[in-house]
Design a protein that fits this description.
- The structure holds two protein chains of two kinds.
- Chain A is mainly beta.
- Helix content of chain A is about 10%, strand content about 55%.
- In chain A, a hairpin with a 5-residue loop joins strand 24 and strand 25.
- Chain A is globular and about 75 Å long.
- The two termini of chain A are about 25 Å apart.
- By secondary structure, chain B is mainly alpha-helical.
- In chain B, helix 1 packs antiparallel against helix 2 and helix 12 packs antiparallel against helix 13.
- Chain B has a four-stranded mixed β-sheet.
- Chain B folds into two domains: about 240 residues, no CATH class; about 150 residues, no CATH class.
- Classes of the chains: A mainly beta, B mainly alpha.
- Chains A and B meet through helix 1, strand 3, strand 4, strand 5 and strand 33 of A and helix 2, helix 6, helix 7, helix 8 and strand 5 of B.
- Strand 5 of chain A pairs parallel with strand 5 of chain B.
Amino acid sequence: MRKLITLLIVLCITATGFAQSKKLESITEFKLQNSGAILNKDKDVDGYYFFYLVDKLKKGAREYGIQVLDNNLNEVAFKKYVAQKGTILVDSQFNNDGLMFAFLNKKERHIKVVLFDRNAEQKETSTVELSKKEITWLMAMNQSEDFNILTSVPNKGFLLTVIKDNKKIGYKTFFYPTDDSRGWRYGSPEGSKEIVTGAPMATNEKFIVINEMSKPGMLSKKLKITTKILNTETGKLVTTIKSDPKKPKLITNGLLNENNQLILMGEYFKGGDNIMKDKSQGLFVEVIDETGATLTENTASWSKDINPILKAKDDKKNSYIYFHDIVPTADGSFYAIGEKFRKTASAAGIAAAVLSRGGNSVTQLTITDALVFEFDKDFALKGIQTFEKGKSRAPSISDFGSPQLNAHVLKNYGAFDHIYTQIDKENDRFYACFIDYERLKGEKNKNAFKTIIYDEGEFSQDKIYLEAGKGKITRVLPAKTGNVVILEYDKKAKTMDLHMEKLNID
Amino acid sequence: MRLFFALTLFLVPLCHSNAQSETLSPKLKDSIFNYLDQSIGSKIASYQGENKRKVSEFWEERKEKIKDDIENNAFIFDDALNSELNKIISQVYAANPEVDPSAFYFFVNRSPVPNAASYGNGSFSLNTGLFSLAENDDELAFIICHEIAHYLLSHSDTAIDSHIESYESKETRKKVNKISNRDVGKFSKAMELLKDINYKLYKKSRSAEIEADSLGMELFKKTGYNPASATSILAKLDFEKKAILNKYAPIKKHLHTNGYPFKDNWLKKENNSLFDLEESSNDYSFDKDSTKTHPAIPKRIELLRTKIASEDENSGVPQVIHMLKEISLAKTIEGAIENNQLDIALFYLLTTHESADDEKSRFYDQMALVLKKMYELKKEHSIGKYVAPISPFSEEEELNKIKQFISNLEPKNIRKLGYWFCQENKDLFANADIQKETHAYFKKLNPNID
């Protein structure tokens, strides 16, 4: 969802056709550094930014320009921003009160957050100093879909999460209010003997939920998952939900509902199992109140609930399912969106392993169909829908650990075909988007942007082919819920066309 | 779309006496292209200054632009329209025998934006939006006189020279080189220079408008049209505080069917504002007042009033404006459907259709075609190429309502709406072939509806 356009774009202030003005044009060119979608906490696109280098100033300073488009692609602001050379825009979020950008400068070793209010006026700027090691970790973590440098808290403020090099690796989250409340910070204990990473998983005006993972050392397989609920106003810890060794769980999704109840979803394991090594037993959904007490907990086991239905549909052995999202709908049902995968041997992986004397992974994940599991409000499996999709392969990062954990790690680095799921609460719809490599008989294979749409209790599919013809590039970019932005680039004419299109329900 | 009236300095045409057919025939196209080659060729040949190469490049570029516009269906070529328009133009010529119109050509541009232009080579354009806005022939005649005045005063030539001199002068070159050699702060210095050049050019443009108003008024006063119309049309063109396409568009009234009742959520507005602004907050924009091509309308009106003896004269000249409005409206809708500008097509269809339940009308033909195109463009994910998104700064609420309606409709809604619209209005279509074709099209998409 982050990288929007990698094509080089320059903007010019001048627009005349006279020869001498070309020189002026080259001076007034804005060179695009990067661009991205401005997201809110539900991964809905509120707009887009384009970050340009504008001018070289004295003492190593640079003038940058931030062009902001709304979610209909209208330019709504073009702001000047002066910072030191080497500044990069690493994240942006909108919380209804304002727009926050995070700028990282590796040389200056700091991250700065800058707020623009509803009048597009630059407000507070805050700087957090970071060490070289902290920056390296932060950039690595930022590749993962589970981690965001900025998280918006609707109508309240923003959270900045960075990695801290305590005794071991830890994390720190800073709260920057956009209302009358005061800022605060929260993080892993200084001098902790464990590596602790944490990231806000769900936020609302009352609570912030942080999912913390800790282990004694880099190579250790003793992973602990702890969920912490903080008070948004004060940053004080409200409750800690520790993983019960008798019922280990891998939490993959978490959300706060209108009643401030926390819904955790993921996979559960046998008592005493290690989630780093062992296969999970099935899926779980747990509803927790604000004191940390479990209100309901439902599970669906692979062996009893899922496999009997799945096997009736598919006789492939050693197939696993990786769940990307679990979406609650208005009637109380849950829909789990997943992809089927198998662990297979990789010729390239074997060759690399031989060359590196066994240091490389010899397996790969072969990813096939998309699946949507429907659960009722008590989490009883009601049915499975299969949506055919071409095979794609992703090399395993390591051959250690359970297939599910391995898949989870790979998912965070974009190995699966699933791109994102958007939820339209107002119309009780969701859109699960995938990239599909279609193998067509008698035709050239084609890449397609495929969307599974749930609407009025039924599923339909929409498809946009990404092959535009010779010398042309077509890309589909994230947009406001239920829409996409289609980018068409003509290499020869060097023209780019961006247009917003609604995903079709027919 | 708020402030587009610009009696463009570079542009000015008249439909002349060329016989024009309903569509642009290859023969007519050749004849217009030849006219452009010749008139622009003579402009280049007659240029005596030092910037011959640059002036030639400029004119060649302009010629290609006009030809592209012709190819891209930007202009209307219609005998009936031209015949009516020529009545006004001929009146202007007849009253001003000292003006030689032999090289004049007036194009009619199918744009809802009330605007006109003088291209400098004797060709002019009038947008159909002007026909919608003008109340009478007199008002249109003043616009024509104003554009001819631009031509007679050689404003295009002066503007081209000024541009070239501003950008290519020794002084500018020196300044540009100095900026290029700077290590830091190049951009801000270049912006200062650009602003300086552009503000001066815009200032000249504003002076040229006053001159064209003044000479245009002299030409206009001889025509027998009411001189006071000069100020009344200018007042109508003051779009500083009003929107152009904002007439009430009764979507629900015209698209409700008994078989598939209109759903109010098809008109539901979406909230998408990042900022609470009335216009884009741009730190790099030029000063708005300094980049206006035209002086403020109240000032122009004030100056013109000094040249008008009486405010309420009746010209007594026979009026053709109603025919112009009617023909240009039909052509605008046709063009908008052909060019897939479905928001514009719907806007005009809905704002101009007077519902008479038992009367056959092209409204039904064109509405069915719009629904069919909307379905097709949505299915192939390309409607966003033709229907511009809603701008948060647009004050055209009725047009925005139509854009929102187009955006909100799912293909499943359009195919049902299309079917029931054709079914329930089948006896009202003016064209039986269109009725048959669109009805069959939507029937095929709805196999389960009887």
